[in-house]
Amino acid sequence: MKKVLLSMLLLLLFTLVACGQDSDKEQADNESGDNQQEETTDEASSGDTITYESENGPVEVPANPERVIVLSTFAGNVLALDVPLVGVDSWAKSNPRYDLEGVEEVSDENLEKIIELDPDLIIGLSTIKNIDKLNEIAPTVTFTYGNLGYLEQHLEIGKLLNKEEEAQAWIDDFKTRAQAAGEEIKAKIGEDATVSVIENFEKELYVFGDNWARGTEILYQEMELKMPEKVKEMALEAGYYTLSLEVLPEYVGDYLIVSKQEETESSFMETDTFKNIPAVQEGNVFVANADEFYFNDPLTLEYQLEFFKEHFLAE
């Protein structure tokens, strides 16, 4: 009888151990499955692509693009965020402020060249041609010029390139520095002094509002320098206004910024009409290289800010 009881106890003990081992195995399997699920989830959230909400809807773009083509306007934004470029438009290529060594010049019509460069992301204005065909080559994101403020635009480029934090940090720092410089400049030239920005391009003269690059965003938005009433009336809403030489004096404030290309006809500056403008006679004209002044990306803005500090605050 004792032997029977002993055998039953041993059998019960082995059964309990086996059940415990099965339970431990099941728990381990469950934990392993959970870990695998978590790893899969993490991989999906930090995978090769992100979804960017463009003005035309969601677009799947590389999480870390390595071969970007910019077909208009935004090359400086991409460069400022240290994202590799393989192709840019002719305007960007002619900008001496951009380091584009080894980067090809391309256009929205040269699809074969774009295919050869094998881009993983294409960026440009909404006015570029062949958008549908470009989308077949690589994810293509466009922006409508002027829909966003100049700093908002850089932030959107940051989001597109998965570098939103870097973009926001630069924006915050730049605004602080530009506004501080504006206070210094107003203290020197007077709170009511007016500033105009003009450019000669293809035998035409233009005066600019507060959002058409050429340093206007810094002067009028960040520094809050004043715009002549005539400029405000004709150029503020549209962004720019075409002038004749005869009426130019009506649009020139106490200070004048001239954005000028060296090879562009600028004989207007040799005329009596120009020379008799008070700002010209008082030496309050600052001439900038148009190739360096066209855009409003961080690289250009940094240059423009230093240009204004150097010229307005010169002793």
Automatic annotation (TrEMBL):
Keywords: Signal, Transport. Residues 1-20 form the signal peptide. Residues 66-315 form the Fe/B12 periplasmic-binding domain. Transmembrane segments: none annotated. It is a lipid-anchor. Residues 43-54 have a biased composition (Polar residues). Residues 24-60 are annotated as: Disordered. Its main location: membrane. The keyword Methyltransferase does not apply. SUPFAM superfamilies: Helical backbone' metal receptor. Residues 29-42 have a biased composition (Acidic residues). It is found in: Cell membrane. InterPro entries: ABC_transptr_periplasmic_BD, Bact_iron-sidero_bind. Belongs to the bacterial solute-binding protein 8 family. This is Iron-hydroxamate ABC transporter substrate-binding protein.
